[in-house]
Amino acid sequence: MRKKISAALIGIGLAAVSVLTTSGSASSHGYTDSPISRQKLCANGTVANCGEIQWEPQSVEGPKGFPSGGPADGTLCAGGNSRFAQLDDPRGGQWPATKVSAGQSYTFNWRFTAAHATTDFRYYITKNGWNPSQKLTRASLETTPFLTVPYNGQRPPSTFSHTGKMPSGKTGRHLILAVWTVADTPNAFYACSDVQF
């Protein structure tokens, strides 16, 4: 009887190890929580009907090279990942928004479940006059990031903050697309944060 129980326990242990090693994409990664990202709003229960992203806010990973490459227009907030398509749904422009001021100094914060060697962090913002009830596209965004933080291949700690200035000349509702470019894989991580100037 003991041999059967031991064999069953070993089998369960091997199955668990197999699951953990084959689903590595869910075990690492990160997201922004300041300004709060759509995936964090889903994970903390502020926004409902989010699908799988509520359990995996750190997993919004897609091809790097934005804006010339990367996810397709209309899928930017989900990193091109159809599993997280709820992040691309504009919800009639009603996502909760962080209050900010044009030109203010602001501390951007990331949370990582496991860090990758990092090229940089880039922050893009929507153009004046963009329509918050439509999916995000490249044409909706300013072409140049308003903040770039080089990281020279280093690995960030589990929480990482950097300070920059919010863009000037902005009023009303906008969307910030944060892009964490990984140095040692072909991917980047994407986070959309709704803000109100």
Automatic annotation (TrEMBL):
Ranges for domain Chitin-binding type-4 come to 29-195
What Gene3D superfamilies has UniProt attached to this entry? chitin-binding protein cbp21
Q: Which CDD domains match?
A: LPMO_AA10 (cd21177)
Presence of the UniProt keyword Signal in the record:
yes
* Ranges where the record places region Disordered: 60-98
Q: Does the keyword Zinc apply?
A: no
Question: Per UniProt, which keywords does this protein have?
Answer: Signal
Any one Pfam family match given in the protein's UniProt record, by short name: LPMO_10
- The positions making up the signal sequence are 1-28
Task: List the coiled-coil residues.
Answer: none
- The protein depicted here goes by the name Putative secreted chitin-binding protein
